[in-house]
Amino acid sequence: MQTLDSLIVILGTGGTIAGTAKTASDGVGYTAAQLRVEDLLAAVPALAGRRLEAHQVAQLDSKDMDVATWQRLAAAVQEHLARPEVGGIVVTHGTDTLEETAYFLHRVLAPAKPVVLTAAMRPATALAPDGPQNLFDAVQVAAAEGASGVVVAFAGRVHDAVQVRKTHSYRVDAFESVDGALVARVEEGVVRLLGRWPAGEALGLARIARPAARWPRVEIVMNHAGASGGIVDALRQAGVDGLIAAGTGNGTLAHPLDEALRAAAAAGVKVWRSTRCDAGPVMNLPGLLPSAGALSPVKARIEMILALLAEA
Question: What residues does the L-asparaginase N-terminal domain cover (predicted)?
Fold first, then answer.
C-alpha cells in the first residue's frame, strides 16, 4: 500500500514531453526526446518535496518505439516494483505509441503497484507546455492509496491500458477511454476514483525474453474502398508470422482482401480481425476469420505477438 512517503520512480523514454523547439511559439516543429527526465522534474517545483528517483531508460521519439526498448522498459519497471520502498512507477513517454506501450506493460506485468504512463502534446519549450502538469498528476496517481495496474494519466484524466486510445492529432486532451469508462480524474492534485484500478494476469518477463530480432513479425492491413489482397500476398512472401486486419465496421473485409487473408491463414499465418473504428468490439461469428474482440488493431497486434511468443 502506498504511503505519503512512498518512493516514486520516474522512468524516462523521451517523447514530446522531453522535446524542444527553436522558439516558444513553435508547437509542432520541435525535436522530440531532447531533455532528460531530471530536466522534466526540475520544471515541476511542486514535486520538490516528494520522494522521487529518476532513471533514463531510453531517449527516443515514440513513433520509433521498438521491441528492444519495450524489453528494457519492462525489465526496469519490474526491477523497481520489486523494491519494497517503491510505491509506484511513472513512465514519461511520447504520445504516438503510448497506448501500445501501456497495453504491453499491462499484459506482461499486470502489476499490483501502479505504473502510470504520461506524456505531452506540446514540447517543453512551448509557451504553455502541458508536460509539467501531466507529470505532476502522474506522480499523484502513482502515490494514490489503493492504486494499482497500468494506467495513463493525461490532461487530468486517468485511463486504463486496455481502453485508452489517442484520438486527436493536436489537442492537449488527445486521449480517450473508448467506451467512456475513466478510472479516475486528477483535480488540483487530488485523485478522484471513478471506477476500478485495472487488474489482469501477468504473462511475465520470460514470455518476452527472446532477442528482439527474433520476435514474431506481425503486421496490420486495413480494409478500405477498393481494397485488394496484394499487400497480404506481399507480406506472406516476406515471411510474416501474423496479420491483423483492421476491418471496416464490425471487422468487415472486402472480398479480395478476405480471400487473401484466408489463403494466408491456410498457409500457417495467424490472422485476426479488428476494426478501424475508434471503439467497439468485433463479433466472433461462424464462418468469419477470428476476432480480436474489443482490442484496437495496434493492441491486437501486441496480443498476437505475445501469443506467438508463447507458441515458439
Answer: 8-193
Residue 4 has pLDDT above 60, yes or no: no
The verdict on 67 and 153 lying in the same domain is yes
Q: Are 64 and 134 in contact (CB under 8 A)?
A: no
Strands 164-166 vs 175-177: parallel, antiparallel or unpaired: antiparallel
pLDDT at 178: 85
The catalytic residue among 69, 92, 95, 97 is: 95
* Residue 62 near residue 298 (C-beta atoms within 8 A): no
How many domains does the chain fold into?
Answer: 2
CATH number at residue 38: 3.40.50.1170
Query: Considering 13, 16, 92, 118, which one is annotated as catalytic?
Result: 16
Cβ burial of 278 (10 Å; 0-12, 13-18, 19+) is exposed
Judge if 287 and 167 occupy the same domain: no
**Residue 245, strand partner residues:** 221, 273
163-195: per-residue pLDDT in tens? 999 999 999 999 999 887 899 999 999 999 999
What are the grid coordinates assigned to 96, written together? 504516438
Q: Is 16 a catalytic residue?
A: yes
Cell numbers for 267: 498457409
114 has which bridge partners? 149
What pLDDT is recorded for position 95? Answer: 98
Range of lowest pLDDT (129-143, 178-192, 216-230, 242-256): 178-192
Q: Does one domain contain both 124 and 185?
A: yes
Q: Establish whether 23 is a catalytic residue.
A: no
The percent of residues in the chain predicted with pLDDT above 90, rounded, is 96
Of 193, 224, 245, the domain-final residue: 193
- Tell me, yes or no, whether 2 lies in a domain: no
